UniProtKB/TrEMBL annotation:
It is found in: Cytoplasm. The keyword Cytoplasm applies. The lineage of its organism: Bacteria, Bacillati, Actinomycetota, Actinomycetes, Micrococcales. CDD domains: PRTases_typeI. Catalyzes a salvage reaction resulting in the formation of AMP, that is energically less costly than de novo synthesis. Residues 50-150 form the Phosphoribosyltransferase domain. It holds the Pfam family Pribosyltran. Its EC number is 2.4.2.7. This is Adenine phosphoribosyltransferase. GO terms for biological process: adenine salvage; AMP salvage; purine ribonucleoside salvage. One of its GO terms (cellular component) is cytoplasm. It is an enzyme of class 2 (transferase). It comes from Nostocoides australiense Ben110. SUPFAM superfamilies: PRTase-like.
């Protein structure tokens, strides 16, 4: 196990039956509550994406926490991929299914300049529905997705199968 994988794994909390019965929820609370662990994640990604991206996109809501920190560390702008109905002005939207429900994501049409390179950030990759919708939205507003980065991958749910068009990196897997 790599050092960053061990740090992440040591700072995640399992919460059974949340938000609905049968779901084993992976809580990132302890990870972002620990300054050193949070910084280690951000620094790991900064080194991987430095000089390779023009913007960071984060997925509502937990992807905002990690993506915002990474954008600051890289010195690039941040693009929020928000739950629908929250962003003003013209948007593009996409509906999708996730492990415990369904939702719609939105991005502002003018969020990027054509061809800008974007790394998409989230906390958990489960079935992959959320991540695919987010990556497709970035492409719809003319961005180029360089990678999808996630803190934790739930490998048994095979979210990667929905993301074959983009490089996928997970800091830890369970
Ligand atoms: O791979 P999937 O099955 O699509 O699930 C992964 C998504 O589920 C969670 O988001 P949620 O919609 O619960 O939003 P939140 O961050 O606001 O809690 C998580 O933060 C991912 O975005
Ligand atoms: N099991 C899980 N834990 C945390 N976030 C999730 N998003 C989708 N499935 C999840």
């Amino acid at each position: 196990m790599s050092e960053i994988s061990a740090v992440v794994s040591a700072h995640l909390r399992d919460v059974p039956d949340f938000p609905s019965p049968g779901i084993l929820f992976k809580d990132i609370g302890p990870l972002i509550g620990d300054a050193q662990a949070f910084a280690a994640v951000t620094e790991h990604w900064r080194l991987r994406h430095q000089h390779r991206v023009d913007a960071v996109a984060g997925i509502d809501a937990r992807g905002f926490i990690f993506g915002g920190a990474l954008a600051l560390a890289l010195g690039v702008g941040f693009v929020p991929v928000r739950k629908a109905g929250k962003l003003p002005g013209p948007t593009v939207e996409k509906s999708y299914d996730l492990e415990y429900g369904s939702a719609t994501l939105a991005v502002q049409r003018d969020a990027l300049e054509p061809g800008q390179r974007v790394v998409v950030i989230d906390d958990v990759l489960a079935t992959g529905g959320t991540a695919r919708a987010a990556c497709e939205l970035i492409e719809e507003v003319d961005g180029k997705v360089t990678a999808f980065e996630v803190v934790l991958e739930l490998a048994a749910l095979d979210g990667r199968a929905k993301l074959s068009r983009w490089p996928v990196e997970a800091l830890a897997s369970s």
